[in-house]
Amino acid sequence: MSTKMHVKSGDEVIVISGKDKGKKGKVLSVNAEKRTVIVEGVSIATKHKKPRKMGETGGIIKQETPIYACKVMHICDKCGAPTRVGRRVLEDGEHVRYCKKCGETF
What we know:
Elements: E1 12-15, E2 24-31, E3 36-39, E4 44-49, E5 59-64, E6 67-68, E7 72-75, E8 82-83, E9 85-89, E10 95-99
Antiparallel strand pairs: 1-2, 1-7, 2-3, 3-6, 4-5, 7-8, 9-10
């Protein structure tokens, strides 16, 4: 099943709800099937890692966990505001995303 997402890897987003509300970050990965995203510096979890091989170090590490894509909003590069993303088809048949506030394409 192919689903369209309003954010892609590399997009700058802001979290609009939850414990990390107001934090900004870059989207590291997108899982369209589960409708989740991993955002840099958001939803940090502590993980206890055990050494598996000789010479490997274990310890406590912090890493980003997935959050639902509906909890993030794209930040426009031109106007700098959180915005909804629209889609349009250009004359040459190319599909592009655009800012619904200023009309700039991404």
